[in-house]
Amino acid sequence: MSSVIEKILGDMNGKREWRSLEKRAKVLPHDYKVAYDEIKQYIWKSSGVSTIDVFKFLLDMFEEGAASNKKVLDITGSDVAAFCDELVRGEQSYFEDCRKKLNKNIAKKLDK
Predict the structure, then answer these.
(1) Which of 29, 53, 70, 98 could bond 65 through an S-S bridge, CB–CB 3.0 to 4.6 Å?
(2) pLDDT by residue for the chain (112 residues), tens digit each?
């Protein structure tokens, strides 16, 4: 029964963890919050990441930078898109999952 509920609602632990990250992000200083929100949108749109680990890492970095009174662009650099691209390099992505599934399906069907 729990697997049926999980299929309908999704992984509740993952959702709780995401909500916890978003609460942490809400208390960032204004500049960090703006940067976090923009980076989050960019990463979701452009990278296809399939985990939230990159956002945990980003929040840790931003919280540490804010505590050290650094400006957000001191952390990201002026090319924030390049910073984001580097941040997600090597992360599991939706695109990678699709590629693996495609290759597996074709190999399976051709082996018949």
Answers:
(1) 70
(2) 556 555 555 567 888 999 999 999 999 999 999 999 999 999 988 888 878 899 999 999 999 999 999 999 999 999 999 999 999 988 877 788 888 899 999 999 998 6
HSE, side-chain direction, 13 A CA sphere, residue 99: 6
What is the CATH number assigned to the segment(s) 2-110?
A: 1.10.1900.10
At residue 93, the 3 state secondary structure works out as: strand
Tell me if 72 sits within 8 A of 31, measured CB to CB: yes
User: How far apart (Å, rounded) are the C-alpha atoms in residues 9 and 82?
Assistant: 35
Domains of the chain, by residue range, sit at 2-110
Spatial separation of the C-alpha atoms in residues 75 and 64, rounded to whole Å: 10
- What DSSP designation does 96 have? H
